[in-house]
Amino acid sequence: MIVASFTGHLRGWWDNYMSIEQKAVVINDIADNEGVDNLDMALVKNKEDDVYTLVLTILEHFNGRFTNQYETVRILLNGLRCRTLGEFRWYKDTYMSRVMEFPKNNYEHWKAKFIDGLPPLFVERVRKALRTNDGEIPYKDYTYGSGEEVDLLDISDSN
């Protein structure tokens, strides 16, 4: 049986965390549809699928749900806040590592969201520094990192 060689955390997870019903679902799983799964792997109908199901179950348990990771990251970023300037380094590192997971991470929305998550009084100072003469903030002209364009992170760090 495939789970006979489990050791350490994996063995504890299988023996103590998984219920008998959950174990049965994993071991007796059979693919019920054809096509392509969320990882672009081919699915064949009525094929034993216990290894695939076991691997997905392990990954989702230990790494969190990854089947729609962009939606999860979007939700996390929309709720991420930096309450004090003491949390700024953590906020910046967390925000940047998550937003870079998106294929289209250079949207103006994510740049504005970065600034909106800062402490309220600090947000006003940063916006004041970014505004043009007509009162608009041209987020498309700003980047997340160093370069020839104005850097959002440098503006945030210096104010």
Automatic annotation (TrEMBL):
This is DUF7746 domain-containing protein. InterPro entries: DUF7746 (IPR056648). It comes from Solanum commersonii (Commerson's wild potato). Residues 1-49 form the DUF7746 domain. PANTHER family: CCHC-TYPE DOMAIN-CONTAINING PROTEIN (PTHR33054), ZINC KNUCKLE FAMILY PROTEIN (PTHR33054:SF12). Pfam families: DUF7746 (PF24925).
